Amino acid sequence: MASEEEAAELFSCGICEDLMVVPTTLVCCGRSFCKECVRLWIKTNAQSGGIPRCPGGCMQKVPYRLPKHSIALRVAMETLVPERLAARLKEAAEDDQELDQLGGFQAWNEIAASRDILYGSNVIVRQGSPGIVVGSCDDGVHLTVKFDEREDGSDLCVNVVPEALMLPLPGGFRLRQQVVALYELLLNSDMKVPLGSVGHVIGSLGEDRVTVLFESLSKPSTAGQSEHQQNMPEYPVSVNIREVAAKRPLVGGFSIAQRVQASMSLVVGSRVVVHAGCRGTVLAEFSDTRLTVVFETSETGAPNCCNVLPLEILPWCQTQPELQAGTTVRAVHHLMSPHAIIVPAGARGTVLGGVDSSIVFVSFDNGPAMAAAISSLEPVPGAAEPAESRCPEDTAVPDQPSPLSSVTDEDVAEEPNSPEMGIACVSMPLESSSVRAENVD
Question: Which pTM value belongs to this model?
Fold first, then answer.
């Protein structure tokens, strides 16, 4: 068996050449070092105007955010060299004197830029960009900071005054970041923020709230909805970090609050819970592969929430007057896939809804329900009106069955009015003068 001296040699740091304290393994080369040794290596290289490279000699860039320490190495040292490890930890604790940094920021704190940072007349770091404090400069005035992104694409650190920094916003949001409302936010009896409203973050208010300035809506009032309910607040609104999300495309390219329609009948067991063509609204991204959609009808006449695959829904829009939902049409030519005729010329079908300005969703007799170009269809004169359905009055239910979906009992929400399913949440309007943070241009 190896002696304790030989075992200690196996666990020596390549920088200080002593027993490792908080052993940290770099991904680039697989070698391990003391965590504080690597940090000192990074700081020395960064403040000398360089880009830190691996101390193991592989010459790869070292990440400023180091991985968690190696539990396996720590346990091995505790087992093989317990006395030497205890002495080394005691020595390191005596040498460890944490100094307060400028403005209350300490080395390796996560921060964000509280304003645009200039070099000369050029913006090199945008307001809200996240970063990490490397340490204080020798001049006692500036902090060395590594920002995650720079406008000039450089990987070098930036020396900034503490006033240009701020603590990160809760929830991982950034200043000026575009966000979307995940719920209908009730401000008071006369004002609300509709589901899907877009705004930008202008500050924080506490540990779990951000202040958002929502953009005004341009869509007109609908029947039964008063004008003041359509007005958006012109002042910042304090929202919980779970009431908004970063604006981005969802799985399948859909978006929050987008109007959609079922592209096939959604079936649970032997029961059709949503007919093909029934309209709905995207509420959220349920998983990496599914979306939560609230459809406007169910067998009970109440909204019906389902977690669906993107292929089970299509975008919805108003159709042209001559091809309204329920209109009987026929194909003017074969509708084909690359290798086969899907719908022959002359086949009749029923328009279920619009997909975009040039495409409608049609359920063909003895055939599939599919999206078809308006130019490939023509109305059938004198056709009978479609049968009534439980779907909205401008959505037709096909007479023939549509392809069945992959929805299961677990994907159908029994209580669509729960907070997770989009019930309105109460948020707080703020006076502009009370908003902290922050140099928003």
Answer: 0.70
